[in-house]
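Project outcomes to date are best conveyed with an example. Our students and postdoctoral researchers have been running inverse folding experiments weekly, and each run begins with a structure described purely in tokens. The record below, which covers 314 residues, was selected by the lab manager from last quarter's runs and is presented without edits.
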């Protein structure tokens, strides 16, 4: 049964994530210890005890989610130094939604745990500093119509674009707030069931992230990277990142580009994957995958009980 590991992005965070797996697994504890040391402060305490307002700040949420995903993966592997080996043994490919792409790269051995954590901390700081624009979820309208309306609503001074192709009937737009307001009215007129503003600090995955992407590029360029031990499906093209040069190009560009999650899952299914294992906080990706590929099997591992249950199937 060909299996892919998938890793969640921002929005899945919750106070207490990772706590029970760390209580039961020394390997998971070690991941959080690495994260705490890399950042110079206790990310683990923030994940386990909050407060929620601090955890949901973009610069904190991003390393917190990556640390939680990698801690759970380490618990599955039984050793924080063997997560890539475990991934190669039990998955034919990996993918992550937006931020989750860093977890996927670490799972595939391209990034160390410490480098993944420090990169996403910097990514979160740069994205939070943008402090411009907003995002909205569009429910019940096809992607071609949404794309066309975004173009119609955009001006040289105020742009709106598709940020996330999440699943059929669920798409996220991003950009200048005035352009989002215009697009929202047009989308409703075109038949969207709902257009819901999202509680985010800026217009992620849009041209408004240009400065953040430019600055992130210098940090990505200095990070140590290896070839992945299994294919990592990139967000931008929904195709494998074939070498280190492709990964270095992907990560900064991803900040201003749409997340092609529908394309990612469709491509994996076309390659024969029929089981998706979501590793990290929440079950968001499992829900999206069920809408994209209804016949695929999904498993979400968000706590130690999930670790034990999944290990029993191997």
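After processing, the design step wrote out the following sequence:
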């Amino acid at each position: 049964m060909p299996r892919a590991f998938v890793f969640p992005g921002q929005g899945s965070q919750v106070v207490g994530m990772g706590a029970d797996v760390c209580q039961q697994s020394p390997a998971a504890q070690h991941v959080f210890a690495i994260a705490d040391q890399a950042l110079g402060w206790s990310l683990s305490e923030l994940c386990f005890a909050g407060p929620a307002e601090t955890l949901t700040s973009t610069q904190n949420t991003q390393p917190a989610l990556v640390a939680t995903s990698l801690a759970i993966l380490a618990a599955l592997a039984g050793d924080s130094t063997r997560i890539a080996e475990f991934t190669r043994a039990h998955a034919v490919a990996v993918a992550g939604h937006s931020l989750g792409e860093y977890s996927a790269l670490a799972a595939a051995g391209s990034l160390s745990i410490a480098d993944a954590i420090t990169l996403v901390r910097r990514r979160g700081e740069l994205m939070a500093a943008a402090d411009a624009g907003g995002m909205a979820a569009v429910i019940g309208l096809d992607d071609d119509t949404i794309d066309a309306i975004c173009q119609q609503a955009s001006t040289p001074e105020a742009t709106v674009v598709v940020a996330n192709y999440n699943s059929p009937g669920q798409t996220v737009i991003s950009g200048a707030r005035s352009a989002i307001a215009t697009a929202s009215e047009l989308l409703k007129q075109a038949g969207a069931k709902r257009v819901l503003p999202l509680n985010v600090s800026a217009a992620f995955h849009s041209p408004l992230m240009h400065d953040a992407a430019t600055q992130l590029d210098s940090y990505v360029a200095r990070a140590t990277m290896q070839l992945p031990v299994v294919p990592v499906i990139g967000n931008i093209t929904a195709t494998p990142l074939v070498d280190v040069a492709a990964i270095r190009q992907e990560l900064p560009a991803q900040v201003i580009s749409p997340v092609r999650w529908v394309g990612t899952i469709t491509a994996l299914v076309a390659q024969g994957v029929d089981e998706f294992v979501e590793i990290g906080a929440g079950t968001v990706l499992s829900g999206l995958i069920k809408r994209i590929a209804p016949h695929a099997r999904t498993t979400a591992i968000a706590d130690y009980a999930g670790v034990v249950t999944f290990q029993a199937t191997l």
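The two ends are 11 Å apart (CA to CA). The longest strand covers residues 160-167. The training component of this project remains on track.
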